[in-house]
Amino acid sequence: MTAGRPQASLERAFADTRPQPPRPNARKTDKAALLLTLRGEAIDRGLPIRSIADRHGVGQRTVLQALESPVPRPGKQYPSRRSRLEPFHDTIDEILRQEAGTPRRSRRTVRSILWTSLSTGTA
Question: Which site among 22, 41, 46, 121 is 20 to 30 Å from 11 CA-CA?
Answer without folding.
Answer: 22
